[in-house]
Amino acid sequence: MKGRALLASLMVLGELAAASSAVAQIYIPPPDDLVEVLPPLPTAPPPTLPEPALPPTTAPAPISAAQAKEDARQMGGALRQSYQDLTAAPGAAAQIPGHSPTYPQETRYYDRADALASDGAAAASQSDAWRTANSTSRPRIAVGREDLARATAIANDPVRFVDGVAADGSAGACTALPPGAGAPGSVEITCNIGESIVEHEQSCKTTLEVRLWEALAYQYVCVSSPTYDGCRALAGSAQCQGTGTTLVPEYGLTVTSYSCDAPVTDPDAFLVGTITAPPPAGAFEASGHVYRCNRSGLSQALSVDPTMGAPLQFLTGLQQCDAGLGMPLCMRTDAISTGLVERDLCLAWDFESDLLGGGKLRCLETAPKEEVYACSALVPELLPEQSETRWFTAQWTAGPCTADPEKCTATKEICSAPDETRVIAGIPVRQACWEKARTSLCQQATGAHNDCGVAEAMPGCQQTNEVCLDDPPAPDGSCKVTERSYSCPVPGSDPEPQQYLCSGDIYCLNGDCETVEREASDEFKDALVGLHALGQANAEFSEDDLSLFKGTRETCAKKIFGISNCCTGKGAPILTPWLCSAAEQKLDKKDDAGLCHKVGTYCSSKVMGVCVTKRDAYCCFASKLTRMLQEQGRVQLSKPWAPPKSESCAGFTVFEFQQLDLSTLNFAEIYADFTEAARLPEEAAMLVEVQNRISQFYGQPQP
User: Dmax over Cα atoms in the chain, in whole Å?
Assistant: First the structure.
């Protein structure tokens, strides 16, 4: 660097000798702060400098300008290597021209600044630099018309000279920054191809069948003696049970009685009679009272044949329909349902004679039909036509239903006929529910499903992986459900422009510009990563199993061919957060922050052998550096991740960590985080870019 500065100074002095004179004044600004008087600084020992080269014995031969530039560049590089540690050498301050080990004399102007102007004018007359700058023979740089034309052309149309030229740092000492980690440029989109489970509802009805308990018990007796067994048929029947034994000693006989559920056809079994059998468990008893009444005001009347109108029977004690029959315990029914005989009553009669002098009664007008009521309680002031108490059984029976119990699951059941009273054998029977409707969710496997059309149609999407979700895999290698992964640009985002850190110096003389190249050092970023790795190793050491950089296993779920997706991948938001657990939403944030490594995908639930829900398994770590150490360190150690269904995210043992060669690991993602704060603003980056283009423009021949 000093070599180039020296060459530039020589060129300036050469130009000064041929220029015209000018006069200028030097203005020395006053100090802008005051310092306290401090004790003298200690004297540093003189630094050890390289011995200067011996001067050439003969004058060098004339060389071209290009060769001079190249020689100066090489000399500058050599001097830069020689003097790069000069500032850190002991006694370096003493090598600066005009340096004084004590505080400079200019400190006396801190409290008497008015003397600075007069003292400066007196010192200027003794200064070679001041006399050179104010000399009438000072060289001048002539700006030609062509230089102004170039500047005007750039000012009027800068895009012409910037467009199409890549600013990759070659025109200046600029270093491209790696992409930042704050806004990833792509997201992972997963989709599925194959069979799907289609769900549909089916409804089935079950009906409560209430029946009158009318089972009979058949009472038999049989006789047996020491020489004859007449009870063999009854004793051997499973439907018969002995109820008693009577001895007849004078005849040497034994009479045994049996109660049977069904008739027994045997000549030695004598049927005594039948009785109603005891009701089974769960049977219930109900009482009923049947009332018949009319609204024609009839208390007695003739019943007639409805077809011929001929009288049948004279009836008395007819009752009027009372208001009490409208109470909730009574319900209107018909005569046949209650076991009564229907009848027609006559309101008006006439006698019809015949030619033989005889005749017959004929009904001219029949009364309205009598009303029949069945009540579970007695109605005051009315006489029931019949009253009885009976036993009933109730049993639910399923109607025709196509729901396959192996493919369908009952989801809900409602009562479609609640709280009704029905007349059975003339007795009103009330039940809370007479009919139920049961809805089942049935599943059926269908093929040829594909939801990858969206990813395939997006510009810039590229397929990155394909995995079969069948568990276990089919022996013939076929796959029912396949998952594909695509890497797609973030929707609605623009690519982040390349940014640079520039450390070069550009100097120009009479339109001829040169770049002072500076070599960038990666020691700083390596030191930062190394220190951070040591800190993480100390913080993440597990005393339980003596391991380093252990992770935690975390998973998220996605319905195959469904809208529920809690595994959207890094950079993409969860579109159905209400369907995702708190742990899955937290995993998504960790993954977006770069803390998680995706191990893989596996089927977590299946129906009829078809995968319906898949899970993505991740290993999440305490820091991004830990994740990178795990990802790249496992490759070095030939230690692959376990299958996604069983990966436990174990850390490195101390021995394994000692085997890692950290110098070969790629920490560019960490460097990007460290340099994020040092990124040039967009305006400053454009300024450097324009500056580089102008330098290129002046270096090219112009028409």
Answer: 184
